[in-house]
Amino acid sequence: MTDRTDPMPVALYARVSSDRQDVDLSVAAQLRALREHAEKHGYIVVREYVDEAESGRVADRPQFRQMLDDASGADAPFEEILVWKFSRFTRKREHAVAFKSMLRRRGIRVVSITEHADDSPTGKLMEAIIESVDEFYSENLAQDVVRGMREAASRGFFLASRAPFGYKRVKVADGGKERPTLEVDPDSAPVVKEVFERALHGQGLKEICRDLNERGVTNRGRRWQKNALHYLLTNEAYTGTAVWGKTSRVGKTPNPVRVEGAWEPIVTRELFEGVRKALRSRAPNVQRPASIGSKYLLSGLLRCGLCGKAYVGQGAKGGRYGYYVCATLQREGAGMCEARYLNAEKAEGFVVEKIRERILTDETITELVTLVAEEIDAQAGELDGKLHVVEAELQDVRSRLGKLYEALEKSDLTLEALSPRILSLRQREDQLAAAREDAARRLEERRVELPGSEEIRAYVADLREFFQEGTFPERKALLRHFVQGIEVTGDEAELTYTIPMPAGGVTSERAGVLDFVQSGPPDLTVDSTGAARATSSALPPRSGLSFGIGIE
Questions:
Q1: Which of 227, 259, 284 is the last residue of a domain?
Q2: Helices (H), 470-510
Q3: How many structural domains does the chain have?
């Protein structure tokens, strides 16, 4: 190795953990030590990267990723990365091996200024041991944190970052430390009591929300909504109970800690349980998925054109459903959306009737098949051209790979020197091969035999009969395969749907409006360009014909 006369460019990386139990140096102290080390050895600092409150067990740290990106460039600006300890670089052994290996291939070393490990076999072994110890420490530290939180919860401290509405989060002394707990907020606690009392006496959540909003009583500056109110009424914290660990990671069994009398309650346990019972007694009015499936034909399909929210089926008094209502209107009350209530029976009957009478006709389906045939020809030509381009580039990549392999055999170039370029070309080769296969497959799919007039008539008759005589679950299932969505605005509804073809098929979209109050025959319309055109991105095999019709 030759002695260099110019100063070696280095980067500094400093990190402090998101873990409050981490006792490593602050960022400022780490950087000061790193700069002193660089100056002592005659290095020139060209980059400084700092991640604050970032765990060393994850690789997706903003400045860490930026450092790796800079190191991976064509002209990396530094030759070494200085860290205070290897644990500042990463605490996971597998990450250390992968990232350091990648950096070494770029001629860049990671150097700890406090843990001396050179490039000798002994030094590399020492570095691996240090990294393994760091990972072991990190995993045990995480377990210690969980144990500490469970201990704090069992002693009645409040561990969430934000206090429930009606409380303030305050700190109290605990053996030389400060721990968080809750203190009643005299300004908002009366609102909590009022809400519980009104819910106990049968007032609905929507009515309570509307009243609070009209009075200007906010939820920390925001309007009250039903889900926020329901969360308040089911939160045990208002009884003075500390609860921690009700949920857990996937595969882990929750083991909650519950402490009564952890702080001053706002409501009594009796009032809380009474409200819980009242909410459960009204729950049958909220339709379960199976009930929705059997009663609401258009559930999940209707959407409000004024506010963008879904229409939902809502039961009338006595538990029977009677209409569809905009979710905004249902949740926030009158004045927030001017959408109309829709009589469920009439709306469902109208949609099915108009589909049968205006869409499932020989003329409509024949026109669509013609449009699809034209689109197939156009897209087949486009795909054929793309296939030729991909094949030409693939041949070029393989030729360049062959030349690199030949250079390895006949020149002094090493595999280490050529491997980045070879890897890049191999990846591009795989991408192009996959693109060629996809283009060839899609081109073959365009070579379909479209149904003739007799087959179209038979298919239309089958669909019309199915809509007329099928059971409710059967009609609902077909409707969901058939209708893409219905946007309701005033007296109009824009209907987009799919006609499932008997075999093969493609997708062609057209936009239009189905007027809920218009009763005359439809005029097939085209888009603003004067043509009904298919979308080139939606032509999968065995799909339906997706389009809309216009009603004047």
A1: 284
A2: 472-482
A3: 3
